[in-house]
Specification:
168 residues, Endonuclease, Chain A, 7 helices, 51% helix
């Protein structure tokens, strides 16, 4: 049973963002600090990737574990109410994600999925994985200052609050 009233649940769900999420801002900050330049929310590509690096023909999706069903993640729970509705929604989300990535690969793009929990737990390893994919396995390590996890979260908080104020 849901511990919130339907009105309160509706209000909570209406506050969930589809773009400029904290994990997405952290990934963008890491890429930008390393010198990568990219576009965001590219509407002309299938699936509207969160981050697009045209120079590398790479599309990055920063997925929330709950909405996109990260396998084995404790955040990928199913709500206790209206379970049939939620299961159907999650199945459709996963199918849509697979279709979008397949279409991008057919167009010659590399696709990468970064999960919310990975960014929260260890953003540096997420960056190293992306950097290795973009620059190649034999590339020399970049010389740049990596922010601590706490500093990254503060950057994401400031940027998210700024974006909220600007969109009103």
């Amino acid at each position: 049973m849901d511990n919130l009233s339907p009105e309160r649940r509706s209000w909570v769900m209406s506050r969930i963002r589809s773009k400029d999420t904290k994990p997405e801002i952290i990934v963008r900050s890491l890429l930008h600090r390393a010198g990568y330049r990219f576009r965001i929310d590219c509407r002309d590509l299938p699936g509207r990737p969160d981050i697009v690096l045209p120079k590398y023909r790479t599309a990055i999706f920063v997925h929330g574990c709950f909405w996109h069903r990260h396998p084995g993640c404790p955040q990928a729970t199913i709500p206790k109410t209206r379970t049939a509705f939620w299961q159907n929604k999650f199945v459709n989300n996963v199918k849509r994600d697979q279709r979008s990535r397949r279409k991008l690969r057919e167009l010659g793009w590399k696709t990468v999925v970064v999960w919310e929990c990975q960014v929260q737990k260890n953003p540096e390893s997420v960056f190293r994985r992306l950097d290795k994919l973009l620059r190649g396995a034999n590339a020399l390590p970049l010389a740049y200052e990596v922010l601590s996890r706490r500093e990254l979260m503060q950057v994401a908080e400031k940027r998210a609050s700024y974006l909220c104020r600007c969109s009103k």
